[in-house]
Amino acid sequence: MSAAPLPTLLVVPSGIGCERGGYAGDALPLARLLAGASGCLVTHPNVMNAASLYWSDQRIHYVEGYALDRFCAAELALRPRRGRRVGVLLDAGIEAQLQWRHRQVADAARASLGLEVGPVVTTDVPLGVSLRLGESGISWGGLEQPGTLLRAGESLVQAGAEAIAVVTRFPDDPDSASLAAYRAGGGVDALAGAEAVISHLLVRRLGIPCAHSPALAPLPLREDLDPRAAAEELGFTFLSCVLVGLSRAPDLIPAAEARATDLHPDALGAVVSVADALGGAGVLACAERGLPVIALRNPCALQVNAAALDLEVMPADSALEAAGLVTALREGLSPSALRHPSRRLG
């Protein structure tokens, strides 16, 4: 008889250039592996979104980053859903032809995948996304019209949307050195920081699942493209994976209103995160509550590790080792019993 699921949290921070998880859904294999090892995985859109590609798994809960932090702080519980109505929010700054491409993705999701999508709302004015890279190389960004974004989101909720896929026009810079490095597999995703700002704003105001998809002009063909960046260049939009993820995203329930059947943060049994990026609010909240933290070696632009934070962690040199540790915890095995040589107690 197999052991009961061990709800596990997977965090791969966006915009910090992770070797795995810093590109177009390239942490999906890790998420699928951990879902199999744990039987129940909670993670965020940055892990699951692979542009034109997606993978639906009922064992994986798709939770936006701001909501994920509140879940880890025991402020929210998650209520699984079989399906939900996903509204689409389009930035008025997207050109007419590119807007039509996104509307056609929404139609295709309804016709080919059977998802409940709609309505589609366009903002009153362009949102004005800006992109920046910090001195450390981490990406971030801003929004000129946050009020317009929130008003459009509220109108979607009033029209019956239970989740929001937001598409904003991002600046094109096809000749930039940072983009060339990213496409070659050596840079930071310049879009990720601004994407997080947009989704955080909506979830914080509306309290429903939201995820972001950037609108960009297609790039010229590059034959030596890194496979981790390839998913972003398969079509005209990145919207399909967002619609699939949101269609089964769990409800965000205030902890005081949670039911016994909801997934409460107290049920979490382990956290897997990037060994050099352990300083996020969600991971620290879980560590403070005594949850086992598995620190996966995954080079990035940060150096916020267990030693810097004075945290006790379980190191994992690979995805396979991280999955093995989760399996051991699920089976009630002490990971130290599986390491050799064994140490005497006295």
UniProtKB/TrEMBL annotation:
Official protein name in the record: DUF3326 domain-containing protein
Pfam families (alphabetical): DUF3326
